[in-house]
Amino acid sequence: MIKVVKFGGSSLADAHQFKKVGKIIRKDVDRRYVVPSAPGKRSPDDTKVTDMLYSCYAQALLEEEDSQESFETLLGAIRERYESIIRELGLSLSLEEEFRSIRENFTRKVGRDYAASRGEYLNGRIMAEYLGYEFIDAAEVICFDEAGNFDGEKTQEILSERLASTERAVIPGFYGAMPDGKIKTFSRGGSDITGSIVAGAVHADLYENWTDVSGFLVADPRIVENPKEIDVITYRELRELSYMGATVLHEDAIFPVRKEGIPINIRNTNAPEDKGTLIVEATCQKPRFIITGIAGKKDFAAVTVEKAMMNSEVGFCRKVLQVFEENGISIEHMPSGIDTMSVFVHQDELKEMEQKVIAGIHREVEPDVLELESDLALVAVVGRGMRTTRGTSGRIFSALAHANIEVKMIDQGSSGLNVIIGVPNDDFEAAVKAIYDIFVTTQL
Ligand code: ASP
After folding, report:
1. Interval 316-346: pLDDT, tens
2. Mapping DSSP to helix (H, G, I), strand (E, B) and coil, where does residue 268 land?
3. How many angstroms separate the CA atoms of 172 and 184, rounded?
4. What are phi and psi of 86, to 5 degrees?
5. Whole-model pTM?
6. How open is the CA angle 282-284-287, to the nearest 5 degrees?
7. I need a surface site. Which of 101, 177, 298, 356 has the fewest CB within 10 A?
8. How far is the CA of 145 from the centre of ligand 1 (A)?
9. How far, in Å, from the CA of 125 to the mean position of ligand 1?
10. What are phi and psi of 83, to 5 degrees?
11. Which helix (H) or strand (E) holds 21?
């Protein structure tokens, strides 16, 4: 078996966390490839090393004298984060040479991505030393093209060949290099992507993503007290729940493993005995509850267009949607009736363009009525179990009715996996609670 293990920033914030990680890796010989993030926050008011690096590089770009002083202070603080880990782990690794070249490269202004990548690079060096694993610089194996886009084909070729001859290795997350050697990072949280790419390249049996929570929760814990954990979720369900997923796992981390049919296991470094959430392509395993999860977001606006005989007017929807496209507004949902269609968009995207959109729709389709409504929240109720269970929608809406919540919109996704409900912003939390209670609390 081959397992690729990725550890997030909070799992590697200090030596104490490193020791937990070491224990986890040593416990299972299959954990052969390790992808670390940069050290994260040690306490809620701490600063992530990646953010320190961005600030430090910003100082390096300034020419003023006092910025030189802040640059030195910041660089010193970053170095101390790593030195304290090395000290407390009792390692003999010296970062002297590394920091000399980092200082030089910052002063030469080689790039913001290079600066940020040093967080993972140095943590990888320490991790490799601590575990006695080979260190592979991600700049040699994770490839971006000239335009700065990830080059999956080239990476696959280089990385799988390199790892085929490497029994155990540490590959830092978050960055790679362009053909000219210039360092390029993924977007924030991108070590998840590296882990997934490595897992795909070695055809791993499992990609373990270790973080500081025991997997995905059925609902947001800020809304529902002590929500249950999701034990198994499919990739498609996770996508439908993307309103909540992003904070646990980077969205782009799914593709490289999904392509290879490799499951992802979200695990908790601080509670390694917890099984976490397993993300799979498909499963016969019956979900614990009819619904897998509830997620949602506030601050949507709905633009409703009404016109008699709209259904028989060829191209009507396209013309309306084109107006949004021309104004650079993405569309979230689009419920419709025989003579009406509503377009749900992010309120902040519409704000600036509102009058242009109204004028555009009038020009394109001459509607009978055009209405705008704002401050709406969308709640997504998702579950593979919903497809085969009768009465699910009935239960959702009676729960909402009992909680006295006005339902503004209903959209049952064509996958049959989800129901999206629009409610006023102010009722959002109550709606999530009511749905959680009816499907989870009452079933315990
Ligand atoms: N260290 C990077 C960040 O803070 C990448 C990561 O942690 O995945 O975004």
Report:
1. 999 999 999 999 999 998 888 899 999 999 9
2. strand
3. 13
4. -60, -45
5. 0.88
6. 95
7. 101
8. 21
9. 16
10. -60, -40
11. helix 15-27
